[in-house]
Specification:
The protein has one domain (about 75-254). About 15% of the residues lie in helices and about 30% in strands. The chain is globular, with a radius of gyration of 19 Å. By secondary structure, the chain is of the alpha+beta class. Keywords: Signal.
């Protein structure tokens, strides 16, 4: 069982050996960049949270009727694919937000290898996930990723067993802001600090490609890699939807 911890203690190192980048003779490939970011985040998170930790501890000690919230850290960082105005701190539409519970990059298949590694195997990737020809996802280096699952927007009170119509996550873009994201079953969302842009990890680009005539073979491989913060390229025959990628460190426990 995972150990709950106060948000003021979240600066403790995350246990995520899978996130440490593998290196070969000192050379880091493009496909390892997300893992490098995640490894770096383990250190960065400490500096991001420590100033807030002292304030949170002070607030908890002076406000008896407002107990400190508790969060449960994930064994490895998760990823939210979000839609919304990047300049906003709140909005609607979280019912369309999605989540990867594992880093989809290392489990992906390059566009150029679709026929050999997916098409020839009944659209089942070597990592075990199934490619959906009507709804497939690509990241910034041209890797086809597994399709994310709907983001949970409900939480369970473990004492009363009451299901609550909202859920809180601790999110970051691995830059200046780490904050609490609340998503609700009515589709609304809000950040306690900063904007959606502030908690977007800019190097991680992600888009869904959809449509009956949409196929990996239509992609122009020269469009990759995609620069940090840039839109994903259009692919002939596809309807494209870009998503912001948020790093998720943990979730609230009630």
């Amino acid at each position: 069982m995972k150990t709950p911890f106060l948000v003021t203690l979240l600066a403790a190192p995350l246990t995520a050996h899978a996130l440490v980048p593998s290196q070969h003779k000192g050379h880091i490939t493009q496909s390892q960049s997300r893992r490098m970011a995640l490894s770096t985040l383990l250190t960065t998170t400490t500096s991001l949270l420590l100033p807030n930790a002292s304030r949170a501890a002070s607030s908890a000690s002076t406000s008896e009727d407002k107990p400190a919230r508790k969060f449960q850290r994930y064994p490895s960082i998760r990823f939210i694919a979000a839609l919304g105005d990047p300049k906003s701190s709140n909005g609607t539409g979280s019912e369309s937000w999605l989540e990867w519970r594992d880093d989809p990059g290392p489990r992906g298949v390059y566009l150029k290898d679709y026929d050999r590694r997916l098409g020839s195997n009944n659209n089942v990737a070597p990592a075990g996930w199934t490619f959906n020809p009507q709804d497939w996802w690509v990241e910034e280096h041209g890797l086809i990723m597994s399709t994310p699952t709907p983001l949970s927007r409900k939480s369970l009170n473990k004492d009363t067993k009451e299901v609550l119509p909202e859920k809180r996550y601790l999110v970051t873009g691995d830059r200046q802001i780490t904050t609490v994201l609340t998503v609700r079953t009515n589709g609304t969302w809000e950040l306690e600090k900063g904007t959606l842009y502030d908690v977007t990890h800019l190097p991680c680009r992600s888009a869904a490609y959809r449509g009956e005539a949409c196929a990996p073979k239509n992609a122009n491989l020269k469009d990759f890699p995609v620069k940090p913060g840039a839109e994903m390229p259009a692919i002939s025959g596809c309807e494209k939807q870009d998503y912001a990628v948020l790093f998720v460190l943990g979730e609230e426990i009630i």
